[in-house]
Amino acid sequence: MRRIRRKFSNAKKAIIAFIIAICLWIFGFYLYTTYQNIEIKPSEYETTRTLSTQIEQTVEEVEQNSKNVADIIEETTKKVVGISKLKNAGSSILSKSTESELGLGTGIIVTEDGYILSNEHVTGSKYSKCYITLENGNSYDGTVVWSDPNLDLSITKINAKNLEYVTFANSSNIRVGETVYAIGNPIGFEFRRTVTSGIISAKNRTIKIEEENQSSYMTNLIQTDATINPGNSGGPLIYPNGEVIGINTVKISSAEGIGFAVPIDIVKPIIESFKNIGKFEEATIGIYAYDKEVIPYLNSGASIIPNINFDRGIYVVQITKNSAADNTDLKEGDIITSIDNVELNTMNDLRQYIYTKKPNDEVVLNIIRGKINRQIKIILGK
Asked: Residue 156, SS3?
């Protein structure tokens, strides 16, 4: 009896398993036939590129961008010139004459009719003569028509027409970490128009220059780790799009990768004046001032500057005798915070604004004297 019951139980389990299998097959067949007949309409879904396609596209864009940068730099180098103080400077770095003796340096073409921007220590001061060599090998006698030793900038005129010239960026908008390229003529003829790359390492730098037992300060400089060698002076510091943001001027000789450029914004009004009317009438206010970045240098040693701290403005150190500022209410020791409501934080800020004015224009200075704030009107001199 027990054996009969066991057989019956096994048969029952087998029947139940068979029925379940049949049900699952019917349900699966139903699903298959149902989804086979669904019509998919384009308006009912969205598509996106796969990751692999996106990566391929990015690689292609990077390659294209690299080609574009190379093309732009190639075009920009055509607007870079060689400058020498000696007409027959030779063509070899093995020449016994040194870079400083030859006055070898770099410049950039800034107008189609032959104005060249460079460093004053490359071209010499105003009315100096120098010799300009273009990318095509043509050489010209040049005359310095403007220079500023404090900025170490100069503009030279050559008798040429229809020249390709550079475009400018807004150097007040630069950011640390941006990619830049320096172009110049390091050492001599063999290495003309050398291109080096780097980043903007810092901005608004102040450095102390000591020459011939005299000290001076250059402020508001762009610091870069793009290699700047002797002969690069006067050459452009550019963005990857070819726009000039500064003029390479000096490097720290005791360290690697620390070079400086003068921001291009400060000289734009002067270039525009030469471009439009062929001359530049320089207005002057007749003061010398330091910004807050220079004061610590002066306070670290013997100085005529008292210990003073200020958060904004420029500190008036000297008023030139018989200048526009002389015989006004402005005094040495005043802190100028703005001119015509334009904020001032460096001496270059003041220069840049004055370069946009003409002699006999009136300006209004906002100053701080101790705890007193006041306004002073000055008629600019020539």
From this structure: strand
Q: Is 84 in the same domain as 220? A: yes
**pLDDT by 10-residue block (mean), the chain, 382 residues:** 52 69 67 47 37 42 62 91 72 40 79 95 92 90 94 95 95 93 74 85 83 74 87 90 93 78 94 94 90 70 60 89 90 93 89 92 93 92 88
Annotated active-site residue in 121, 265, 291, 349: 121
Q: Is 233 a catalytic residue?
A: yes
Q: Both 82 and 218 in a single domain?
A: yes
In terms of residue numbers, what domain contains 327? 281-379
121 part of the active site? yes
Count of domains forming the chain: 2
CB 240 within 8 A of CB 181: yes
Residue 307 in any domain: the answer is: yes
Please give the full DSSP string across 6-46, using - where no structure is assigned.
Answer: HHHHHHHHHHHHHHHHHHHHHHHHHHHHHHHTPPPPGGG--
Would 32 be classed as within a structural domain?
no
Catalytic residue among 147, 154, 233, 273: 233
